[in-house]
From TrEMBL:
It comes from the Bacteria. Keywords: ATP-binding, Ligase, Nucleotide-binding. This is D-alanine-D-alanine ligase-like ATP-grasp enzyme. InterPro entries: ATP-grasp, Dala_Dala_lig_C.
Amino acid sequence: MDLFLTDDGQVVLNEVNTLPGLTSYSRYPRMMAAAGIPLSDLIDRLVSMTLHGKKQ
């Protein structure tokens, strides 16, 4: 989700991104790396879940 904080402290929703960036400098892969999941493993998991369902 992309949010903005206005000058008066109100949080405004800008957009919901259902397809996060997967480049090495994007936040999603960096968050996964911080959780111990490298980008290559993340992509392998996403492809496997797409092909075989969420059974893993």
